[in-house]
């Protein structure tokens, strides 16, 4: 078995029973231009060998990349979660042999064992994958969270795991919520414990080979607190019998009957151009630049004002209609007597709108100046693209900033307690769950991406 790292979570696994391609991302930048591979690499998809099995582990855009999927020949067998969005995209792209998988149930194959493993992550349908043939066994964890029961059942089924592509990065995506940049001690511990429980012969820190591209490069100092080198060193200190290996794009692992050999730069279709991982060195003291709107999609300012104004009117209508309905989000804002502010950064200036839930019914104040409790600042072009469903939530995170000072005070002369009140962001909740086109928004973005790929629907 040969396992080649194409970059990030993209692997080509060549076995005696067929060739498996996982989560292909061939082009940089990706995720709508927000991120790029790190280390920097070059990929020539035309030089890949014939693919027998295509695996899409989950719908996150760094694993489910439409331009790359459009370059994969349609005759292969596709394995994916039971996710309607992924199934819709694969059908639109013209893949005819698609199998939605059930974790912990083996998949039929001739001289190859494919075994999807369960994830304990509750917010996304995803799976890891064990690939085994006569030469050895690989477990690609991808982004999954593994329970001890899953690990024990998998190891009992396959015996020793030769190579484990392990989740390790503990990316600090909570930074987008409140600019907190602490070290993720608990998650780092869990990731190390997972590898120790699997007890592979070789462990490769994986599925974290990207950085943010300009103009969001400043985020790199905050979002990647655990380097692959640090993870490997911690693992080696815990269990010398597990051999940590660092792979760069174009590197390969050759697995043969209990032996794992690492070949640097062995791939004929992919290579590392330069090691620029210094760009993601963790530094929570780095400066945070002011929020600006470079308007990368080139929207006219009048169009942005029209789209955003209409969105605020609909958001206000939702707040008024739902504020008296128990346990709805507007009701929770009303009970907390919250003043919500959306400040929109235009290329030429900024405007703020305030929704005052202290009023009955909630009042929309354009250009409000009161001290708000919950604040969401966002670039006008990002919000416009999201409202028009040309961009998604993950893209807009780098163009927005949020904060909350909402709390309740309890006590008397004997003592006082101040408790924070945590509420989901009103605009995000509306666009993701409430807006008339919310259910079809992801499909619309898929359609736009496919239309932008030449020959995407052709086999």
Description:
This protein is an alpha/beta fold. The chain is built from 13 helices and 25 strands. The chain has helices spanning 66-69, 84-93, 148-158, 175-178, 185-198, 220-223, 228-238, 301-322, 329-335, 380-387, 393-396, 426-434, 438-451, and strands spanning 2-7, 10-15, 18-22, 35-37, 40-43, 53-55, 77-80, 98-100, 113-117, 128-133, 136-140, 163-167, 202-206, 210-212, 243-244, 252-256, 259-263, 270-274, 339-346, 349-356, 363-366, 374-379, 400-404, 407-412, 415-420. Strand 16 and strand 17 form a beta hairpin. The longest helix has 22 residues, at 301-322. The radius of gyration is 24 Å and the shape is globular. The model has no long low-confidence stretch (mean pLDDT 95).
What is the compact description of this entry?
This protein is of the alpha/beta class.
In the CATH classification, which architecture of the largest domain applies?
4-Layer Sandwich
CATH fold annotation of the largest domain:
Metallo-beta-lactamase, Chain A
Q: Into which percentage range does the β-strand content fall?
A: 25-35%
Biggest β-sheet: strands ordered side by side in the sheet: 8-7-6-3-2-1-16-17
Cα-based radius of gyration, to the nearest Å: 24 Å
Q: Largest sheet at a glance?
A: 8 strands, mixed
Throw out a few tags for this protein.
459 residues; Nonspecific Lipid-transfer Protein, Chain A; 2 domains; 13 helices; 27% strand; globular
